[in-house]
Every structure is written in C-alpha cells, then in structure tokens.
Specification:
Layout: H1 3-68, H2 76-103, H3 135-153, H4 163-186, H5 208-226, H6 242-260, H7 269-297, H8 302-316, H9 327-350, H10 358-376, H11 391-424, H12 431-436, H13 438-443
C-alpha cells in the first residue's frame, strides 16, 4: 500500500468533508428555526382565534343578557335583538369595507381601499400589525371590536328607539366615528398613531379611546337628542331580572380577557401582563363601587357589584398592556368610584335618560383610563412606551387622544342621528308603541307572558 499517497488524499479530502458537515448542520439549523417559527405561529393563531371568540361572546350573550335584565319585561327581546343584530350587520360591514378603511394604507385620518371585500386579506401575515398570525385572523379579531361598539351605545336609548333607526344609525355612525378614530389610533400612519412624528403616539392598548370613549360619548348624545323614556323619571322603571344581568356581567368579565389580553396579538408575556391587569381592574372596580354604594345608600347591591366590575374593565382597557400589572387595581378603583358618582349623582342632576348608563360607565371610564395610561405607562413591559420626551408629553398626547375621540363622537353621532331621522321618518317609537313595548310592536313576540 502506498501510505504517502493515502495520507495526501486524506488531507485533501478533509476540508470537503468538513464543508459537507457544516452545510448539513446549517440545513438542520434552518429546519429547526422554521419548526420553531411554525410552532409560534400556530400558538399565536390559536390564542387569537380564541380571543376573537371571547370578544364576540361579550356582545352575545354577554352584553345582550347584561342589558336585557335591566329593562322592563315588555322590552326584553327588543333589547337583546339590538345586540344580536349588531353581530350580523357589523360583521358584513366590516368585511366589506370597514376593515379596509381602518387598516389599509391611506391618509392620517382614514385608511384606503386595498382590503375592500377582503381583497389581499389571506393566510399570510400582515407584518405591519401582527407578523405571526394569518392576516385573516387579525381581521376577524378586529371585527369583534367593531361589532360590540355600536351594541354598547344601544344602552343609552333602550326601550324607545325604532329598529329601523337603530340599523341606519349604527351604519352611519361606523363610517363617521368608529372607522376614522380606529384608523387614527391603530392604523399605520394614523394621525394619533404617528402624532408628533410618532415620537409620542397616543397609547390605546385595547380600545379605551377607540371603543369606550367613542361609544360612551355617542351614547350621551343619543340620550340627549332622542329624549327620555315616557314617564321618566317619575314612573317606576325597575330592572325586571337582575339575575340575567348578573350572568351577562360575568360573561363580560371573562370575555374581556380576549378584549385586552388578546390585544397583545400573540400568546406572549405581554398577553399575561394584560390578562392580570384586566382581572385586577375588574375586581377593584367592583369593590370601589360597593364601597361608594355603602357610603351613599347604606347597603351594597348586586347591581352595584356588577356595574363596578364593568366600570373597572372599561377603565383599564386603554392601559392594560402599557402599565405594571398591579396598576390595574388603580385603574379599577378610579373607575369604580368616579363612574358611581357619574351614574348616581351627576346623571340625576343633569336629568338625561341614559337608560343603561353607557355614558356614565364606558364614556367616563374610557376618559379616566386614557388619562391614567399617560400617568402610569412604563416601558418595563412594553417597549411601545417611549418616555424620552418626558411623562408630561405622554399625558399631553393622551389628552389629545381623548379630545379627538370626544369630538368625533359628538359631531359624528349628532350627524348620524339627524341623517337617520330624515331617512327613517323619526328616531323613536310612537307613544302608544312605547307603552306597549318593543317586543310586541317591533318583533311581534313576547319575551315574557305579560298577562301571566
């Protein structure tokens, strides 16, 4: 055997063998990275689809039960139908054009038409918003926010608005208020998203401004324009079933985890922060309302407990993913106390008939939450918080966000009501119809046998 020749061949082959080994290792490493990315995408997608379902559950059955238990028996089905029909109407409106006007590239005040009829919305991620989940998943998750928003407003005019007027008003309101405000806050290049060159954007984690301020202020405008129920405030108008409202409130509390923790847009540590913050906000809101009620009325009530929890949830929504977890309790305490005062004291002094206190809970809670977010936001849990320009700059941005949300809600809702009245021949039922009740007059059905 020629040992020198064999040794030389071995030495010459060694680099090629090493190269092949390195290439194989790189290939395996790339496969491993792809598997990890696929696993993350699957986990994030599962969480976001679950969150979308949780937010839909907030409208029906959550809000439907919460609201219907607080009205009189003759209006139970009519009140539930107002929430249910929003699940149908706003779903189609959002898929057809709403999603595009909020999230497609456009102007600082409204999105474009790239996603009309879900065009260009497929299974590949939209990396501008949620890089680890299908674009369709992001779209349907955001859809649920558009569904519940006009449903919240119905609490202001419960027991007196015509069904046809509700439908027309909600569609016009979406175009004039929800779509532009949502784009300005959440859309890429939106005015409040890119305020001051993006250095100090308005922080709205899950819809404190986009949902609660716009709906709460719109609810107040509706209550003022439409006017009070016949007999208000002299005739007794007690809730017919606090049991139903209690169940609805519990469903809202659970569903809110999809609302807030889902807004992390991934099954991430940020979702855990928002989840805990939200839970503490609801708990503190319930306790604060009960304490205020004990002091004011001499006893705590079940209605007070569930109202406080919802107030705490509405208040914590804006900052859920921007603050330290225990700060959620601060949001809840502030929301519980202030919203109680608005509902029990201010409402009576002003004399408006916001039937189910959509303004006192959601509008006021949203404003408190937006302001507190500026005060308590920290980059420790979310690097979207940038305080390089100082705390006051962020508080100022939050106040601008509140002002824009309020302005759009006031003007947009007033215009929507006037247009609706012109299109449908009036906003509310006639006196005789209102006395008879929505269930029979509008739907020809009885939720309860009123003669039993």
């Amino acid at each position: 055997m020629n040992w020198p020749r064999l040794a030389a061949a071995t030495l010459l082959a060694a680099p090629f063998a090493h190269a092949q080994s390195t290439a194989a290792l790189d290939s395996e490493l790339q496969k491993l990275k792809a598997a990890v990315a696929a696993s993350q995408s699957a986990g994030d997608n599962a969480w976001m689809l679950t969150s979308a379902a949780l937010v839909l559950m907030m409208t029906g059955p959550g809000l439907a039960l919460f609201y219907c238990g607080l009205v009189r028996k003759k209006n139970v089905l009519g009140t539930m139908m107002q929430s249910f029909i929003m699940m149908a109407v706003m779903t189609l409106l959002w898929a057809a054009i709403g999603y595009s006007l909020v999230f497609a590239p456009g102007t600082p005040f409204l999105g474009g038409l790239d996603f009309v009829m879900l065009n260009n919305v497929g299974t590949a991620p939209n990396t501008d918003y949620a890089p680890t989940i299908p674009h369709l998943t992001f779209m349907v998750y955001q859809m649920m926010f558009a569904v519940i928003s006009p449903a919240l407003i119905t609490g202001a005019f419960a027991e007196r608005m015509k069904f046809s007027s509700l439908l027309v008003y909600s569609i016009i309101w979406a175009f004039l208020v929800y779509f532009p405000v949502a784009h300005m806050v959440w859309g890429k290049g939106g005015y409040l998203n890119a305020f001051m060159g993006g250095a100090v954007p308005v922080l709205d984690f899950a819809g404190g401004t986009v949902v609660h301020i716009t709906t709460g202020i719109s609810a107040l405008i509706c209550a003022l324009v439409i006017g009070p129920r016949r007999g208000y405030p002299h005739d007794p108008m007690k809730p017919h079933s606090l049991v139903l409202s209690f169940i609805g409130a519990c469903l809202l509390w659970v569903g809110w985890f999809g609302f807030n923790a889902g807004s992390a847009l991934a099954a991430s540590s940020l979702a855990s922060v928002a989840f805990v913050t939200t839970h503490l906000g609801a708990a503190a809101g319930a306790i604060a309302w009960l304490i205020a009620e004990q002091w004011h009325n001499g006893r705590p009530s079940a209605l007070g407990a569930i109202s406080g929890a919802v107030a705490g949830l509405a208040t914590v929504t804006q900052g859920a993913g921007f603050v330290a977890p225990f700060s959620g309790a601060i949001f809840g305490l502030a929301g519980g106390f202030v919203c109680f005062y608005m509902v029990v004291v201010v409402k009576q002094k002003w004399g408006y008939d916001d039937t189910l206190d959509a303004f006192g809970v959601h509008g006021v809670g949203g404003i408190i939450g937006a302001t507190l977010t500026g005060v308590l936001a920290t980059s420790a849990y979310n690097d979207a918080v940038k305080l390089a320009d100082g705390r006051m700059a962020q508080i100022g941005a939050q106040c601008i966000g509140v002002a824009v949300g309020v302005a759009f809600a006031v003007v947009g809702s007033w215009i929507a009501l006037k247009l609706t009245a012109a299109i449908t021949g009036g906003l509310r039922m006639e006196t005789r119809e209102e006395v008879q009740g929505m269930d029979l007059v509008i739907h020809g059905e009885e939720g309860y046998n009123l003669d039993a």
